[in-house]
Amino acid sequence: MSQPDTPRRGKVAVIGAGFYGSTTAQRLAEYDIFEEVVLTDIIDGKPEGLALDMNQSRPIEGFETRVTGQTTGRSGDGYEAVAGSGIVVITAGLPRKPGMSRMDLIEVNAKIVRDVVENVVKHAPEAVLIVVSNPLDEMTALAAKVSGFPSSRVMGQAGMLDTARFSYFVAEKLGVPAGSVRTLTLGSHGDTMVPVPSACSVSGRPLGELLPAEEIDKLVTRTRNGGGEIVGLLKTGSAYYAPSAAAARMARAVAADSGDVMPVCAWVDGEYGISGVYLGVEAEIGSAGVRRVVQRDLSDTELAALREAAEAVRAKQADVAALLRAGDAALSRFASAKAALSRSCASQGGAGPARRRGPRHRRGRRHRTRRSRSDWMARSPGPRPAGRRRA
Known about the structure:
alpha/beta; L-2-Hydroxyisocaproate Dehydrogenase, Chain A, domain 2; 2 domains; 6-stranded parallel beta sheet; 14 strands; 46% helix; globular
């Protein structure tokens, strides 16, 4: 049974036990470098069952990392299990369905990611956050805003996946080993993804010497739509093998304080003449997250495309910030109304803000309601209306 090159240490948590999250947890456990991998989900028993299954594979695969499953509640109970985690991978959120864009998910996943981050901050305030929920760039910015963490400790997984897809498509087209291909994508994880042809090569030869520009453009388009292609084929669910491999590699780089340079979604503050936005760039990864954004020489066309992508992402991240403010305002109004109701009840000696109706009045009201409804049905030529549904 093989032993890890470095001692097992530390704890990593994966939030969300869907295919993406559970596969990420499995990969992290099989690295055999962590003391513990925690997998959480709101579906009762699901993370515990998956963790038990993974632990039973330890004698077969030869790893000793302990996998712990924990069901969490919407009120935050169960998140104690992530306490002490140095890395938290956030996969929670709805997956895309056929015909659905990443932006279609924004409102519902923004609420989910916000709730998750608030609970993670309570129990793992020193963690590095790796966000994979879609829409990726926007959810990464949201996680940074909600957590209040230094921007270096919040990053998103996107460029690793897009670059891997691009490399695979090139290898498939040329019939060469995938390991011989080097590609790079920057910008957004979506429509404004920016391929960097000047950084693409096969066994050291520039990609432009091996494929005509129109063929490269076709591969870029397929890469940009790579997630959607898989969603369309699966019919239900979305990609998780390649995405989980990318997220796990990022977590491993943090755990090992490796200094590896990876394409990730990181905070840009002056690099490439761009500031104040989370964007897909190359970054050096260490134990504290992003050590620095790594600039490379880009052609004028590549640089212009990256700056255009930054402005598109900036606008979308502003939309998320507006959603966040709207949510805060709604919570504030709810709290004020609740406080006013409590004061009203107290001033009436706990009797409540309104008079209770007597039994006779209630009976009469129900009788009138039934008679009124019967009269309406008698007059109506249409179908009988459905009864009132219970929530």
